[in-house]
Amino acid sequence: MGIFSVQDENAIQAELKNPGELLESYIFDELCHLTDERKQEFISSEEATAMVEAGLISRKTLVRLSKTDDLSRRMKMAAFQLAKDNDDMLWNQLVKNRIKERELIEKISNKYNSKAGRAAKVGQKNFLSKKIPLAFLRK
Length: 139
Known about the structure:
This protein is an all-alpha fold. The chain is 79% helix and 0% strand. It has helices at 6-15, 19-32, 36-43, 46-54, 59-63, 67-85, 89-111, 113-129, 134-138. Helix 2 (19-32) crosses helix 8. The protein starts with 5 loop residues before the first helix and ends with a helix.
């Protein structure tokens, strides 16, 4: 038995402007925890093609899992470290911005906590009930 009735689920789904985007975020998060070999195996699999055709994920999601994305992420991390080591003014501004960003994230989380919790539970239920190859992701 679920926590919410069908009416509750419909109300929550109606509250989200794009529930598909939330589902894609859940899938992307799952895929990010795979090894590079498993990511490449998934990208070239029939399951990935079927998920793209069904609209569960987009081609953009698959591109973000590539080695070039990993390289650009590592380059950004190295640039951050160099800026920090050189006590760059831009680094100090970024640190101040990140502090402000965390404060704003906390305020948003507190404001929408109950609605977000309901949406997350419904989203999780829908994520697990869709024909998503979870066994593939969990190997």
